[in-house]
Amino acid sequence: MELREVERLIEQYEEGNTSLAEEKKLSEYFSTHTVPSHLEPYRIIFGYTAEVKKETYQGKKPIGTPQKNYTWMAIAATIVLALGLFVYQNNPSYNAGGENNDIVMTAEQEEAYLQAKRTLLLVSEYMNDGKEELVHLKEINSANKFINLKQ
Amino acid sequence: MTQQDFLSKINPSRDKMYRLALRLLVSKEAAEDATQEVMMKLWDRKQKIKEYANVEAYAMTVTKNYCLDQLKLKYNNNLRIVHQNYESNSISLQKEMEVRDELSWVERIIKDLPEQQQIIFQLRDVEQYEFEEISEIVGMECTAIRVALSRARKKIRESLTKKHDYGVKRS
C-alpha cells in the first residue's frame, strides 16, 4: 500500500468511515512498515489494539450443575455404606476382637492410673481447703448492703 | 439447555467479554470477577438465551451494563490504578520496554475518555465488530456510534501526538 493511500485511509479512519477490511489493511501496514513521524501515533494505536486483543480470560470456569453429580455421589455412598454394614455383620471376628480391648491393662498402666488418681485427689483436697477461706468474702457483700443503703 | 450447550455458546465470546470488562474496570481481578458474574447471570437466563439470534451481542450487552453498574456503584473507585501488565515476548527487552511504555500511554489516554467512547472504541478497534453489531450491543444509532468513534480516535491520536512532541522537545 502506498503512503498516499495510507494517508487517505487514515483520514477516513478518523472520521469513523472506514470499513473493517480497510482497518485491517491499516493495521497490517503499521505492523510491517516503518512509518514517517506524522503517522507514528497511528502506529502506536494499531499496535495497541492488536496487543490488547491478545488478552484472554484466565479465570476459573464458572457455573456448575451439581445436582447430577450429587445423585451419583449419593448412590455411590449408599452402596459403600450397605456393603460396609453387610461385611461387618457377616464377619463376627470384628465383634469379638473389639469388646475386651479397652479394659485390658498392663500392670504398669494400672500403676500409672492409680498414681494419677491419687495426685488428682490431693489437688482437689487442697483446693477445697483453700476455698473454705473464701467464705469470708460474703462479709464484703453484707457490708456493701449498708453502704448502698446510705447512698 | 444443558451446561455443555450453554458453554459452547458462550465460550467463544468469553474473551471478548473479559476484554470489555478490562477496558471499563480497573484491574484484571475486577474484570475476571465481572466476567464470572456475567456468565452466572447468563446461565440464570439460559431460557431466554435460546430465543436470541445473536447470543454474543446479548452477552456483550449484559457485560457492558454490568460493568457500568459497577462503576456507578463506585465499587472500584478506591482503586483507580491503570493496569499495564502486558505480556509481549519475542522482542528484546529494550524494545519491549518501549512498547510497554507506548501501550500504557494509550491505556491511560483511553481511560480518560467518556465511558461510552471507551466501549465503542473497544468494540470496533479491538474486537472489530460491524457497526450494526455495536448498535445492537450499546443500543445506539449507527451514525451516533460513528461520531463517538471518530471523537475517540481523534482524541487518542491528539493526545499521542502531544506526548510525542513533548518527548522530542525534552530530549
How does this model look, in words?
The complex is a heterodimer of chains A (151) and B (171). Chain A is mainly alpha-helical. Chain A is built from 7 helices and no strands. The relative contact order of chain A is 0.04. The mean pLDDT of chain A is 83. Chain B is mainly alpha-helical and 171 residues long. Chain B has 8 helices and no strands. Classes of the chains: A mainly alpha (151), B mainly alpha (171). Chains A and B meet through helix 1, helix 2 and helix 3 of A and helix 1, helix 2, helix 5 and helix 8 of B. Chain A: Keywords: Membrane, Transmembrane, Transmembrane helix. Chain A: The chain crosses the membrane at residues 70-88. Chain B: Residues 14-72 form the RNA polymerase sigma-70 region domain. Chain B: Belongs to the sigma-70 factor family. ECF subfamily.
Q: Pairing-aware structural class of the strands and helices of chain A?
A: mainly alpha
Mean pLDDT of chain A: 83
Question: How many β-strand stretches of chain A?
Answer: 0
Largest interface: A-B, 32 and 44 residues
- Given as residue ranges, the uncertain stretches of chain A (5+ residues, pLDDT < 50) are none
Instruction: Specify the helix fraction band of chain B.
Output: over 70%
User: What Rg of chain B is obtained from the alpha carbons, in whole angstroms?
Assistant: 18 Å
Query: Got a strand count of chain B?
Result: 0
Total of DSSP H or I helical runs spanning 4+ residues of chain B: 8
Strand content of chain B: under 5%
Strand % of chain A is: under 5%
Low-confidence stretches of chain B: none
Give the N-terminus to C-terminus distance of chain A in angstroms: 103 Å
Query: Which structural class fits the helix and strand makeup of chain B?
Result: mainly alpha
Give me the Rg of chain A, rounded. 44 Å
| Helix/strand order of chain B, N-terminal first | HHHHHHHH
Keywords (chain A): Membrane, Transmembrane, Transmembrane helix
Transmembrane segments (chain A): 70-88
Keywords (chain B): DNA-binding, Sigma factor, Transcription, Transcription regulation
Domain RNA polymerase sigma-70 region (chain B): 14-72
